[in-house]
Amino acid sequence: KEGNAGNVSLSFKTIQTPEQCSGVTCSAIAGKHFLSTHGQLQWNEGDQTSRTITVQILEHPGWNSSIAFRDFQVLLENITFFSGRQKARTYSGPQQVLAIVRIEESDGPGIASLDVTHTFVREDVGTVGLK
Question: What is the reported pTM?
Fold first, then answer.
């Protein structure tokens, strides 16, 4: 959100590969686990509404039991004031902001649940069926 004075813009982009991630381990890959995106966000003077960055998450076949989730990053950068009352001021906050996005694996074997409180069976029956 922008404040009440000045216009602010920034650019955003998804980080494409684990090798490009900064400060954390990323395992999601653009084109395989998510679609890469980039763009600009802008707030005009007095605009305090939130903005949304949409990244499409891809469903991929297969399941790896050792990977419960995959991470990737979205980079916010080139934060600048333009026109308005703050035009002459220089932005002095962080030059880049990284957001970590976690994709949880959904292709797993599922969850089995069995809730049997008490079941009585005679030992000479041989088998018992539980539902």
Answer: 0.67
- CATH label of the domain that carries residue 21: 2.60.40.2030
| CB contact set of 74 (below 8 Å; sequence gap of 6+) | 12, 13, 14, 15, 53, 55, 98, 99, 101
Three-state secondary structure call for residue 107: coil
User: Which tokens hold the place of 52?
Assistant: 């949304």
Residue with tokens 């404040």: 3
pLDDT tens digits along 109-123: 554 444 444 445 555
> What is the pLDDT averaged over residues 47-51?
85
Give dist(CA 74, CA 15) in Å, integer: 6
Query: What whole-number distance in Å separates Cα of residue 35 and Cα of residue 99?
Result: 16
> 47: domain range?
7-104
Residues 6+ away with beta carbon under 8 Å from 98 = 22, 23, 73, 74, 75, 76
Query: What phi and psi values does residue 95 have, to the nearest 5 degrees?
Result: -75, -25
